[in-house]
Amino acid sequence: MQRNVPTVSQVLDQIKNTLESQFRGVSVVGEITNLSYSGAGHYYFTLSDSSSALNCCLFKMDALRNPLIKNLKDGDKIIAAGGLGVYTKRGSFQLIVKRITPAGSGDLKLQLERLKKRLASEGLFDIEHKLPIPKFPRKVGLITAEGSAAYHDFLNVTKRRSSWMDILLSPAMVQGDKAPESIRNALIKLIAFDQKSENKLDVIVITRGGGSLEDLWAFNDEALAWEIHNCPIPVISAVGHEVDYSISDYVADKRCETPTAAAEAITAGQVQLISHLQGLKRSVRDFGANLLYRRQTQLAQTSPVHMLRKIESRFYQYQQRLADCRLQGRLPEFTGLHEKTMRLEDCLNQLKRYPDRIESLNTKLNNNFSLLRLMNPENILGRGYTYVKNENGTLVGSVKSFEKLPEESKLKIYFSDGQKTVVKRSF
Questions:
Q1: Mind listing the pLDDT tens digit for each residue in 13-42?
Q2: How far apart (Å, rounded) are the C-alpha atoms in residues 47 and 51?
Q3: Torsional class of 207: left (φ above 0), alpha (ψ -120 to 50), beta (otherwise)
Q4: pLDDT category, 332, cuts 50, 70, 90?
Q5: What is the pLDDT of residues 182-225, one digit of tens each?
Q6: Alpha-carbon distance 130 to 53, whole Å?
Q7: What is the CA radius of gyration of the chain?
Q8: For the chain, first and last CA: distance in Å?
Q9: Strand runs (DSSP E) across 51-123, as ranges?
Q10: All domains of the chain, ordered by start, with CATH?
Q11: What is the mean pLDDT of residues 352-363?
């Protein structure tokens, strides 16, 4: 067996590190085949051309940011951008797609960026040119396709959140070659209506639902941008989804992510006001209930029955206090005589117990004295015994302790009738 030969896992790990580092951001154009959708929300497909094929995966979170995937089918030509990922368990690799655009949309994006830069240099996006959106609009001009999902979403939200608001629809085409002119004409009609009518428009909303870059291209029209910029009425642009940005979004006085967001924005002031009024209503109701309770309580306290009970209670209090002030028969209480009598009785009882106590102590003392007398060593000496102590007064009670004493040590011998001193000497 040869040494230093890498394993399959080692080779695949090297390939994985090389491919994923070298191909982090690539764009591939090709036709979709084998498009499938998993229950977890992921999309799998193959990008192919006349001679090659590349497996691709669009995970759930990236699919939500690319709604175009829902409308694609086998045979559609797209540009997929992302990075290569190697699955070492199978020894295969695929493109992890992050962004999908229809083939040819790259040119549209380039046109969009050029137009955006030019209009920005001409001041169409400047903040100082933007009109403030009224907080409580009463009449709103709406530009969208009549009967579209955006139209119904906008109306549903405004009806649910608004207590007063008139919606004036100026229908327009929002997709196709004729859409830019249709949107401009709808905006011009609303401006003309505002100038002739007594009920002025407070704000104009231009909106449609999401779609591809081609679907939303009508809102990137330069002539429409100038119409919005010159509009004397505040304009809200709500085109596409959160990730979609059009020229109308940049030039409008306010940009909203969706038609629903636009409806919520123009009704936010009413919602806040209604909420505030409801809070005031609750406060007034609570204040009225509290005031009524206090007045009822005060009325109950001032009723004749309550006053009579209060007078009776006060009378009994004064009557008790007057009884407490009487001195007759309370001499012992005020002089402390009663307490002193009790203390004298306690002392007398203690004195009565003293003879028995003394007799008990005398008996105990005599017993202890007899015990001490029996233990007195002098009694033993009377029977012919003696004991010896050294100079330090230590008892010499054995031959061993006697032999340890140095020569010429003085010892005291105790007898029953006295003591004698002797000297230790060896013979």
A1: 888 888 888 888 888 988 888 999 998 899
A2: 11
A3: beta
A4: low
A5: 999 999 999 999 888 777 899 999 999 887 777 888 899 999 99
A6: 50
A7: 56
A8: 106
A9: 53-58, 77-87, 92-102
A10: 8-106 (2.40.50.140), 133-271 (3.40.50.2300), 379-423 (no CATH)
A11: 87
Instruction: Report how far residue 3's alpha carbon sits from residue 36's, in angstroms, rounded to the nearest whole number.
Output: 45
Prediction pTM value: 0.48
Structure tokens that stand for 398 in this block? 């054995």
Measured CA to CA, the distance from residue 426 to residue 71 in angstroms comes to: 134
- pLDDT tier at 275, thresholds 50, 70, 90: confident
The two beta strands, 235-239 and 203-208, are parallel
| Residues 225/124, Cβ–Cβ less than 8 Å | yes
Which tokens in the block code for residue 212? 């591809």
Go through the chain and tell me how many residues it has: 427
Q: What is the band of 102 on the pLDDT scale with cuts at 50, 70, 90?
A: confident
Distance CA 372, CA 74 (A): 125
- Interaxial angle between packed helices 222-230 and 105-121, expressed in degrees from 0 to 180 and rounded to the nearest 10: 30
Q: Using alpha carbons, select from 313, 205, 307 the residue that is nearest to residue 264.
A: 205
Alpha carbon distance 151, 385 (integer Å): 135
